[in-house]
């Protein structure tokens, strides 16, 4: 009976499965089990097969292997944002670098998918659940996005970047609450007393958590928490939000922006109105992206480990695919205040 792991395509001139088995001193089926990472192989036999494969330069046929293992050796990075925002936001570039680094040496390919403007998620869900990928990393979720939960319920391993509002799936996130709290405390320590915030979107956990951290900082200092304007994570949106904040609260002497992109827009609007930074209005951002050092003045900001976020998400997903137990349902990465010229 043919072993179901016999999946190699033996091309003339290329090392064959039999040659690997002969060199390793084991059976053909043992070689197949090693190649497909199947159980029931001793450590000694596995090491012998591995040495023989390296010595002979044997390359298994991946397409055939997938028929046996039912794995594609691909994972998807799902970004729930339109493409134009993905390519302009340094956050997504950092996550992508981290995911790529996390996959290094794993033999897996990355499939990048973005939500089309006319797609409610159904087409993307169908694609992901149709055997094209072994698992999914999902970032930038809005509201009670059902996609991660639906993928998990369909049996596809999922890890989200950021706390999902719906819960029920493992996630990796930065400590947004504590990071925002440290920004608020820094502004208070610098003697600012009318501190506003340009909060992130109210339908995202990242916006909710950073706003809560700022409010905690204001409350413990006995300061007002009314100077709040929400903004999308974009420079233009940050400038518009800063304009609204100044119109409603012209006495603000400091601003915590929920992202560096928002903070850069705020700096632009403050300059247009003749407000000096930090003399008249101090500004603190969040991310410590490349924009922070390019801004004028250089931006005081909260550093979140974006690349580490991508690497840790990838590790968590690969560990789940490998059947490791137990695994943490959530992982929170530390943040750090980086003081520069703007506050």
How would you describe this protein?
Helix content is 45%, strand content 16%. The protein has 343 residues and is α/β, with parallel strands linked by helices. It has 3 domains: 17-69, lambda repressor-like DNA-binding domains (434 Repressor (Amino-terminal Domain), Orthogonal Bundle); 74-173 and 307-332, Response regulator (Rossmann fold, 3-Layer(aba) Sandwich); 176-304, Rossmann fold (3-Layer(aba) Sandwich). The relative contact order is 0.12.
Short summary:
With 343 residues, the chain is of the alpha/beta class. It contains 14 helices and 12 strands. The radius of gyration is 25 Å and the shape is elongated.
Strand arrangement across the biggest beta sheet:
2-1-3-4-5-11
Distance between the termini: 73 Å
Contiguous runs where pLDDT drops below 50 for at least 5 residues: 1-12, 62-69
Class from secondary-structure proportions: alpha/beta
Number of domains: 3
**CATH architectural designation of the largest domain:** 3-Layer(aba) Sandwich
Radius of gyration: 25 Å
Largest pleated sheet: 6 strands, parallel
CATH class placement of the largest domain: Alpha Beta
Q: What is the arithmetic mean of pLDDT?
A: 88
Encode the helix/strand succession as letters: HHHHEHHEHEHEEHEHEHEHEHEHEE
Name the CATH superfamily assignment of the largest domain. Answer: Response regulator
| Percentage of residues in DSSP E strands | 15-25%
Distinct helical segment count: 14
Shape: elongated
């Amino acid at each position: 009976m043919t072993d179901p792991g016999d999946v190699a395509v033996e091309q003339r001139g290329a090392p064959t499965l039999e040659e690997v088995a002969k060199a390793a001193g084991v059976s053909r089926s043992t070689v197949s089990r090693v190649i497909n990472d199947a159980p029931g192989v001793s450590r000694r036999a596995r090491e012998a097969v591995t040495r023989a494969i390296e010595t002979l330069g044997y390359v298994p046929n991946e397409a055939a292997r997938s028929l046996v293992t039912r794995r594609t050796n691909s994972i998807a990075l799902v970004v729930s944002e339109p493409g134009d925002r993905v390519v302009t936001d340094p956050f997504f570039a950092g996550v992508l670098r981290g995911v790529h680094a996390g996959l290094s040496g794993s033999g897996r390919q990355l499939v990048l998918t973005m939500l089309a403007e006319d797609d409610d998620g159904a087409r993307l869900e169908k694609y992901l659940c149709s055997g094209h990928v072994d698992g999914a990393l999902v970032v930038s979720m809005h509201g009670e996005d059902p996609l991660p939960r639906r993928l998990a319920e369909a049996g596809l391993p999922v890890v989200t970047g950021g706390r999902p509002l719906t819960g029920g799936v493992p996630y990796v996130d930065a400590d947004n609450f504590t990071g925002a709290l440290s920004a608020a405390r820094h502004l208070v320590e610098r003697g600012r007393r009318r501190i506003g915030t340009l909060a992130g979107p109210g339908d995202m956990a990242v916006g909710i958590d950073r706003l809560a951290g700022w409010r905690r900082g204001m409350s413990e200092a006995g300061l007002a928490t009314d100077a709040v304007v929400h903004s999308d994570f974009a420079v233009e949106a940050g400038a518009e939000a800063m304009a609204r904040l100044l119109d409603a609260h012209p006495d603000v002497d400091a601003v915590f922006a929920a992202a560096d992109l928002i903070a850069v827009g705020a700096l632009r609007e403050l300059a247009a109105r003749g407000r000096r930074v930090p003399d008249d209005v101090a500004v603190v951002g969040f991310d410590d992206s490349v924009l922070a050092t390019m801004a004028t003045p250089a931006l005081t900001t909260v550093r979140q480990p974006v690349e580490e976020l991508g690497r840790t998400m990838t590790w968590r997903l690969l560990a789940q695919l490998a059947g490791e137990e137990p695994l943490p349902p959530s992982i929170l990465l530390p943040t750090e205040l980086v003081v520069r010229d703007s506050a």
